[in-house]
Task: structure prediction
Amino acid sequence: MTIPAEIETMLPEMVELARVRRRPIARRTPDGWLLNAWVIRSNSTPVVAVMVQPNERLQSETERRAEPGRVGPAVATDLKRLREEFGLTRAEARVARLLQMRYTNREVAAALSISPHTARHHTGKILLKLGIARRSEVPARLTEAG
Result:
């Protein structure tokens, strides 16, 4: 796969931002590429991981979410209701809404500018508060409750 020159010029800046800020950085190019950078080890010398997703992958994920029988963005639950009904924190409610749209932990992390580990932590807390065992049950549980 060939990475466009535009992205290659953006990568050093993103790596430096992630290193200095010590938090994930996500950027989307006009032609649909998704770039993520985050610090994976921050000892004396920070190590920054970079993930580049081509636009074809993003399109296939959008189509995957739009398949019949899947819960799409139009069915996303109101954040305030999630917080009141299930006792979720603000961050957990945001993550729950993305889980309802079948986002993976990596996609949740990129969408909310948090680390994948934090996304996994919130997902675990959400499953406990909703009283379910699998993340695949989140859309059904939120839909039946609303």
User: Anything to note?
Assistant: Residues 86 and 117 are 22 Å apart (CA to CA). Confidence is low (pLDDT under 50) at residues 66-76. The chain has seven helices and three strands.
